[in-house]
TrEMBL record, chain A:
UniProt feature coiled coil, ranges: none
Name this polypeptide is given: (Fe-S)-binding protein
GO terms, molecular function: oxidoreductase activity
Organism: Nonomuraea phyllanthi
Superkingdom of origin: Bacteria
A GO cellular component entry from the record: cytosol
Amino acid sequence: MQVALFITCVNDTLFPGTGKAVVSLLRRLGCDVDFPAAQTCCGQMHVNTGYREEGVRLARHFTEVFAGYDAVVAPSGSCAAMVREQYPKLAKPGSRGAAAIAEVAPKVYELSEFLIDVLKVEDVGAYFPHRVTYHPTCHSLRGLHLGDRPTRLLRNVRGLELVPLPGSEECCGFGGTFAVKNPAVSAAMGADKTRNILDTGAEVLCAADNSCLMHIGGTLRRQKTGVRTMHLAEILASTEETQ
Amino acid sequence: MSATFLGMPGNFPENSAKAVQDSQLRFNLRKATHTIRGKRAGVVGELPDWQELRAAGKAIKDHTLRNLDRYLLQLEEAVTGAGGTVHWARDAAEANRIVTDLVKATGETEVVKVKSMATQEIELNQALAEHGITAYETDLAELIVQLGDDFPSHILVPAIHRNRSEIREIFLDRMPDAPRDLTDDPPALTEAARLHLRERFLRSKVAISGANFMVAETGTLVVLESEGNGRMCLSLPETLISVVGIEKLLPSWRDLEVFLQLLPRSSTGERMNPYTSMWTGSVEGQDFHLVLLDNGRTDVLADEVGRQALRCIRCSACLNVCPVYERAGGHAYGSVYPGPIGAILTPQLRGMSSELDASLPFASSLCGACYEVCPVAIDIPEVLVDLRAKAPHAAAERAGMKVAGWILNDHNRLARAQRAATRVRGFVPKRLPGPLSAWTDTRDVPEIPEESFRDWWERNERA
């Protein structure tokens, strides 16, 4: 199966390891992975901060780059939700843009959705002998309604001990530019989230969004907790050989 | 006399930064919101048709709002036919003048009040005070707020920021008939308030209320409450004046059935609230006046995205699940409408000309918890994002976002920017300057990788 990887600008720039993990994981599962070089950003930061014009331009660019692919996989619940949930609201009903969005948006999958709903696998053959807790990011939880897909994948990872995260459904406080526009509340939410993570005794915090992990991980590192953050793709890509 | 929100200085980030420092406040808010949140989840979860009820609530409100002109005239006719008098108020000043004149005409200088958001919104108590009329709040929490010269901080539980020892202090200090040996035991506190209020109910000749719903077909007004104090005010005084926002309308009794299920389960987390009072026009010789309040609502109705905020039934479910409200508290929002619903309602009703009002659409991480619990399915994140596009932006931010947009719109520009960032990796300070310090005050910055994903792909895969 041919798959286009939408890496997302945050992963591309700051977390290339996540992209490499997606490539190796999807190839291991028999997919032919393409990376359309012209891709950039879904436009979420601009739209959600009130810069609609710039956001619409980026959305148009996205629909042009990914038109024609049967499946587009993004290692980000937030960016996938942007395309699927918010793009349709950006174009005038009946316009060419709306038609282009209607064509592309349903083919955009967050990684765990693609694995479970399209490839129909729950055991991806991964090995990761660590104590892990999972934070369901808001846009994957309430935007895409991923439900237990990510944790079903994690439960099938050999050696992995999955511990429940108290208050898991509460926002970590990242919220894009919210983190710098309302730093006090964002930090207070982050502090409560990290306290819950530490209570689990997990070595690794896993999520389907590196942007949230950047905020939580930045807080964990500042507090010198020793808890690592890892994207879901990186755990699922791990095998005996890579450990 | 309670303080007023209008003209409050500051902005949401500053106000909330002060609030998060207050560990007592955070403890009170967390405890209260999590308790109500849990109760709501329980009574909503037991209904197999909750999502259908929610969809019905949304559809009924949307239909009513689309035909508001027609239903308002129908209501006016029904209320008038039942012996009541209907007044139309364009804005707060007009509503306050109408109510003041009506009270003056009775010759009374004291009124009792049923808990009402609309009269808080127009700051009626202050307007009456300017004309020598004293308004007494009779809802227990509103009484605590009023006695403490305080601001309400929650729609359903306005004194949520107070704990029982603070309430005891307020009662001893400001309630002349409070027993001197009053303890902070909740039954003792409510008993003191009960005796204090009973006196007022029996003495007052004029009452002022709002309403949760108005039924157009019969002209019936509906108030839901927990304490029964509202019913005292509605039934005992000779004159009753109700100030109600024009969006509180429902076409028929059949429609009301849906909302009598949605509201108590969403607000107090009860299957049914203890007291539901309904009255139609002038009852048993009571002189009844209905003041229909616009105060910005028709402007909201004209906005295609924002108009869904008018579906709101003031249940506060969104406040109780909001992680931002839980840390910031209600006062940070500078309005009688705090929390997620306030963040979309206040900027629409008041505009965004003040620094505070312009900061409200950004007072959210867009986590979506509010939308999920809203009994009339108001997509609050959608309205927030729409308002953010209309809000004024600082020049420096606008310039930065323009540059970011320019870079992100072309993959070659993005690749060059990524390589430039790679060259300075290792030189990134632990504390960043300017607005980015907001990030590094509490968090480490992520390490810039040796190479972007796209360069790695180009090097390894493209060949």
